[in-house]
Design brief:
By secondary structure, the chain is of the alpha/beta class. The chain folds into two domains: 3-175 and 211-240 and 282-287, Rossmann fold, CATH 3.40.50; 185-208 and 241-274 and 293-310, UDP-galactose 4-epimerase, domain 1, CATH 3.90.25. It has helices spanning 15-26, 60-66, 82-87, 89-110, 122-125, 143-162, 185-195, 214-226, 245-255, 281-287, 295-310; strands at 6-10, 30-35, 51-54, 72-75, 114-120, 165-171, 173-175, 199-202, 208-209, 211-213, 233-237, 243-244, 263-266. The strands form four sheets. The protein has a seven-stranded parallel sheet with strand order 3-2-1-4-5-6-11, with helices on both faces. Strands 7-10 form a two-stranded parallel sheet. A two-stranded parallel ribbon has the order 8-13. α1 links the parallel β1 and β2.
């Protein structure tokens, strides 16, 4: 199988990739994964009928080999931490800007028809009155947000210059199974509850995010791969629900059967957006995307996964 049905997923052994690759394989796609296993793990794809190639997106030769016989790319590989980008902006640039350019340029060389790439909503747009949408003016306040904006810029340019059908999906705050190596807030909260340590909230607890289950993000990525939309398209895959950090802490504690677990407040961290949630109206119109897993269902389901897979010892 070649053509659009043969898909290279960069970063496919990571958190989102573990769910997405299973979904694509189940839908009949032939999938090859390129991952340097820095935050991904081969175990995430155990028993999945997908080819795993260990390598780095920043290496053009590796990309050329990985793209042989492929018809499309879903580009997930990234340095995904806002805090990490503040600590090491050069490293973040190297992976997210240079790496994304290398993926797009390799796709151009290989004659790839379709490239779908992971982007971000909150960090890219910065501090804006929510709900944010594709019409919001991007003003990133962290190097991570800037790197994702640069990636979108290159995707749009490659669509218009070379005719590659690029689609950037701006993720909300993703959570769900296989997220144990991601330093997301749910992980940190669940680990605190499990160990008995207090939950740490940076700021006063009113900062908000749009939490999207990985099943919904994977659905959006597959729709972006398969639907016929113009190159250079940017879409928000979100829940459309604003959840404050304090609300999230309470939901996590309830899911873990530990209501009233202690919370410790610390000063707000640099580079982090205050309020954020997004409208998915355009993704609904263009792709038929709609979130299907509410936070009230998804968070307890994720706690159960942590109990079964992470906290077994």
């Amino acid at each position: 199988m070649s053509g659009p049905d043969a898909v290279l997923v960069t970063g496919g052994a990571g958190f989102v990739g573990a769910t997405l690759v299973r979904r694509l394989v189940a839908s009949g796609h032939r999938v090859r994964v390129l991952d340097n296993l820095s935050t991904g793990a081969a175990a995430h794809l155990a028993g999945v009928d997908a080819e795993l190639v260990e390598g780095d997106i920043r290496d053009a030769g590796t990309l050329d080999k990985a793209l042989a016989g492929m018809g499309a790319v879903i580009h997930l590989a990234a340095a995904g931490s806002v805090v990490g980008s503040v600590q090491d902006p050069a490293g973040n640039f190297d992976v997210n800007v240079l790496g994304t350019f290398q993926v797009l340029d390799a796709a151009r060389r290989a004659g790839i028809e379709r490239v779908v790439q992971a982007s971000t909503g909150g960090a890219l747009i910065g501090d804006a009155t929510p709900p944010v949408s594709e019409r919001s003016l991007p003003k990133p306040i962290s190097p991570y947000g800037a790197s994702k904006l640069a990636g979108e810029g290159y995707a749009h340019a490659f669509a218009k210059t070379y005719g590659i059908r690029t689609v950037a999906i701006r993720f909300g705050n993703v959570y769900g199974p296989w997220c144990e190596r991601k330093r997301g807030v749910l992980n940190v909260f669940f680990e605190a509850v499990h160990s008995g340590a207090p939950l740490v909230i940076y700021g006063d607890g009113t900062a908000s995010r749009d939490y999207v289950h990985v099943d919904d993000i994977s659905n959006a990525l597959q729709l972006a791969l398969e639907k016929d939309v113009p190159g250079g398209t940017v879409l928000h895959a979100a829940s459309g629900v604003e959840t404050t950090v304090k609300e999230l802490a309470d939901l996590c504690c309830q899911a873990a059967g530990a209501p009233g677990h202690p919370i410790e407040y610390r000063p707000k961290r640099a580079g982090e957006v205050g309020r954020n949630f997004a409208s998915y109206d355009l993704a609904k119109e263009v792709l038929g995307y709609a979130p299907s897993v509410s936070r009230e269902v998804g968070i307890p389901r994720t706690w159960k996964w942590f109990q079964d897979e992470v906290f077994r010892d």
